[in-house]
Each structure stands twice: as structure tokens, then as C-alpha cells.
Write the C-alpha cells for this entry.
Amino acid sequence: MDKNSKRYTVTTALPYANGPVHIGHLAGVYVPADIYVRYLRSIGFDVLFIGGSDEHGVPITIKARKENTTPQAIVDRYHSIIKQSFQELGISFDIYSRTSSPMHHKTSSEFFTKLYNEGKFIEKTSEQYYDESAQQFLADRYITGTCPHCNYEKAYGDQCESCGTSLNATDLINPISTLSGNPPVKRSTKHWFLPLDQYETWLKQWILEDHKEWKPNVYGQCKSWLDQGLQPRAVTRDLDWGVKVPLSDAEGKVLYVWFDAPIGYISISKEWAEQTGKDWKPYWKDADTKLVHFIGKDNIVFHCIIFPTMLKTEGSYILPENVPANEFLNLEGDKISTSRNWAVWLHEYLVDFPEKQDVLRYTLCANAPETKDNDFTWKDFQARNNNELLAVFGNLVNRTVVLTHKYFEGKVPAQNALNEIDTSVLKELAAFPEKIAKSIENYRFREALNEMMNVARLGNKYLTDCEPWKVFKTDPERVKTVLNISLQICANLAIVCEPFIPFTAKKLNHILNTSSKKWNEAGSANLLEAGHQLNEAELLFVKIEDAEIEQQVNKLLETKKANQMAAVKANPSKELIDFEDFAKLDIRCGTILEAVKVPKAKKLLQLKVDTGIDQRTVISGIAEYFEPEQIIGQQVSIVFNLAPKNLRGVESQGMILMGEDADGKLVFVSPTQKIKEGSEIK
């Protein structure tokens, strides 16, 4: 962090307005961003914190069609839910807006027009699918057909959900329009492309050399993209929902959502400026401003490669200082899935657990997927509240304030002579603000949260070791010092806990009868003057009972049952076959020797398998469920005599058998005990 910076512009990934926000979004993006921004404000920096709903794109049009309504009605519904949920959780945006606003359409059009007029785009005419019945070009998700790689019959025009291979719609075998059910025809259409390949040299220098401090997962993904080579990327598409392309020969075309959505950060800043009477330009064009994007790992390429290229091409904007992307949060050991309703939705949590916003914020920060995917469980949520927030933080404050009222009528007693224990505790206390700050500034929020709780642990241990309830009868002067120091620790907690659990900080300030203080005041042993009157003690946290947790677990179990029933209906038994058909399959046992991710295919792993007869390469669509290093040595069942297939330029020589449950979770079909490679499975 540059302490000399005049201001910070902090953005959060724009949540897609075709559904509510869930805990995965919160843990990956919004809670860490809010912690960072609250800390910056407490330091005294000028911060613009931007949020908004991403409201364009094909998935919204698909949802509108399914619900027999308009895209605008869909985004209006979910924008309202998302915005209200963020407010209730205390995500402290300076503005939360949307990309369907007039300001956004105007800003995006102007951005495109400037690049167009300066000749920054290239034009290409290509053959794309057109539905003659619907009289429109088809977006990739409106086309299904047979995957040319694995023969899955319901592959989409952009990706096969079975093998994970990225596709072009024109690659599909027997394509069908989902709008009419008819085969589409090919027609010529013109689009404009951003020539990313022309910026490779600059990007390699800017990212790989100038930003080696970026998180390893961010740096590594960027390096992978750059090493493979970049290609021109279309900035327009044939669609009727989105920002209209501001050209006379672009009827029926809109800006691609990946192009217009990040411009939303700028358009929302302009809205904020209009509302507040301030100037937005310094937050985007002043070299002293630091721009930070908080995103999930699925958005790394857009915020580290594509959007910076757009800004660089335009020429007048600053570039991001950092993009601290997180990995994914799982739920009860399974991947969060909005389509399967396997999620904890924020708006539902706020109803089920009123006034417990900070418990969720605390738990999600403690489990933040900063370096690898992590897991949220309801039992851990309960334990974090009962064993940490209640038993440590709340216990310290309650004991200290109750004892002060009992012995000194709620007035802060004066410190007397300090002994060695007192001096040591105050020295530790003074060091915490810098520790916490350093962790936050380096985007290590879990580490920062733990240091914040160590302040409470320090206070609890001090109070327990000194036992003022025993000492008061024999040495009341000593008790004055002990309670004064304990109260100073509580007052420090009110400062350093605010970025993490702001509702608790507000309650604590009320109990201490103080106003909120700035970060540079933390570490002091003189935050509360002798004689200062405290308010009555009140519980900062309450115990979460087993019954409350069981209710949430049962809700998830019901979701799982519903998914299983739906899967059975959607995947009925296949036709009976003769034994002779089954006997044609040569299935053998093998062992995975090597595993690497297939570039630009999020579902594919390239495996080297020892079959006992040879070592062969197999491409398997399991990358979303297994990390390569986790499956080295895994015994598998392999279809040995499957005809070779070229997948992503690699010849796949067989198929790994997997079991898939109703939730889509994959497990290896393996022997229950180790068996020699090449053993036949009958």
C-alpha cells in the first residue's frame, strides 16, 4: 500500500442480476472488499467504493424467456434484492447502481465510439447461425447440438457441459435453435474485435515484470493466458438486450457484456459524482489514485488482461494497482451451484438470523478462500459464534463492563502503578494495530481477523490471570488498574474490529459510551479517561443453538433430495443391451501418473495413466472436482479399447469411469483395495 496515495478507487465484481447473492460471492469478493475499504477510511484515505448489478447478456434473456417476462423485469427484481441484501449486511458502498442505467449506456457508447473513431478495433465478417422462424441471430446458449469431441448430444454453442471443451457454435453436429426447435441456417454478420494479440508484449511487461507482487493464483492464471497467446476478441454481438452499438450499420447489435460490464465501474462513478456534486475524474484519471479490483478467480482474465487493455487503448485512465482475486467457497463439502439451489442465499440468511450480520461476516472472513478453495459448514458457523465471538470477544467486554459497574459505579477507574504484567500487556496491545494493518494491506484478511481476535484473547487472559473479583477485597487499588487496562483493550477492539464486524463495533462504542475513533488512535492505553461513565453492559453475541443449525442443515438436505428426484426424472435408465454389447467393452484398472490442466478448458485434465500394458494419455472432464496434484497415484477404471479422440489438440486414448450423483459430484470408480495395473474389470 502506498501511504502517499491521495485516494483509492475500489471496485467489486458486478453480481449478475439473474439471481440473488450467496455466501460464495460474499466470501470471494464483497466481505474482503468491505474490510479493505473500511480500513482505508479509518486510516483517513479518500476512498470511492463502487458496486453495481451486471444486467446485460444472454443468461438474462434466457431466464426472461423461461418465465415469460422481459429482461428488464428480471434485472429489476434481482437488482432490488441484491442491493437491499448488501445494505443489510453492511457492505459500505459509496454507490450501488446498475448497468441498465442511462448513464451506463451513454458511457459505454462513448467508450466504444472513441476506440472506433481511433481505429482501435478490427472488423470481421463471419458465418453465424440464424433462426429464420425467430428472425434473429442466435447467441451460443440458444444453440444445442452434438459435441464433436465427446458426442454429448446436448452441448451448448459455447461449451460442452459433458467434456468441458470450449466450442464455437459452428462446431456442433446437428445444431438446433432452442428458440424454435428448428435447425438454424448460417448467415454472414459483421462484428468488431479488440485485437488483444497486439498488446501481448505490453501485457507481459506490465503483469509478469511490473506486478510480481500480485497473488500467486492471479499471477499464475495471467501467465498461463499470455504464454498461450492472445487472440482478437469480439466486442459486439447480435442480440436485442444490452447497450446498442452506436453505429449506423450495426442494427440489431449490442456491446458484448464482457466489454460493457467493466465500463460500469466508470459509469457508476459518474452517477456517484452527479449525486454528490463531486468530480469523478480524479478517481479514474489521476496518477496518485490507486485502483483495486476485488473479484473471484473466474473473473481474473477480464480484470487483469482484457479491461486493462481496454483502458490502455483508450489512453486516459489509470490501470489497476492490484487485483486480489480469491478462489471459490464450497458449501458442506460440495460446490455451490445456483442451478441446483445448493447455496446459502444472503437475503434468506438475513431473515433466518436477524441481527447476526457480523456472525456471517466473521465466519466468511475466517474461512475466506484466499489461496485455495475453502468450505463453509453450518457447524463451523455455530462454533465460530459460540466458541470465538461469544466466548472470547463478547466474554471479555461483558466481564469487564459488569465488574466496572459492580465496583466503580460504571466509571472508568484510574490507573495506578503498573507491574510487569501490566507493562507487558500494554506493549502487546500497542503492537496489534500495525500487525492487523499490514495483513489487510497485503490482502491477507484471514490473518488480519485472527490478529484482531488476538486482542480479545489478550484481554481475556489478562483479566483471568489478574482475577480482580478475588483481589478487590484486599487490594481495590490494584483492581482499578486491572479494569482500566481491560477497558482500554475493549476500546481498542472497538477500533480494530470495525472493518470486520462493524455492527459489533457500533454496539461496543455504545456500551463504552464513546464515538468511533480512527485507526491511528488504536494501540493507545489512554482511549478512555478516568471517570468516564460507561453505559450498562449488554450482550454483543448470543449462543446459536443446535436446533437453529439443524434447521439449516435440513433445508440443504431437502434441496439435495429434490435434486436427486429431478436427476432421476431427467436421466432415466437407458435402453437394455445384450451381454454381447457389454462384452465388447475392455475395462481395466490403471493408475494416474501425471495430471495437468488443459489450457482454456476449465473442466478438462490431461492425465497420463499406467495401464500395466502401456502409459497412455487420457483427457477427462474432472478439473472442477479434483486438483491435479491430489489425484497422482489414484487407481482408476479405464475403458481400454475406446477409439482415440482428438480433444483440444491432444489425442485421448481411453475414458476414465466416474460415478456422478444427483448433485453432479464426481467420484472415481476404483477398486476397494490396490490391484495390479492392467487387471481386467468384468
Q: What stands out?
A: The mean pLDDT is 92. The chain has four domains: 7-118+259-335, 122-193, 377-521, 579-681. Residues 27 and 368 are 6 Å apart (CA to CA). The longest strand covers residues 587-597.
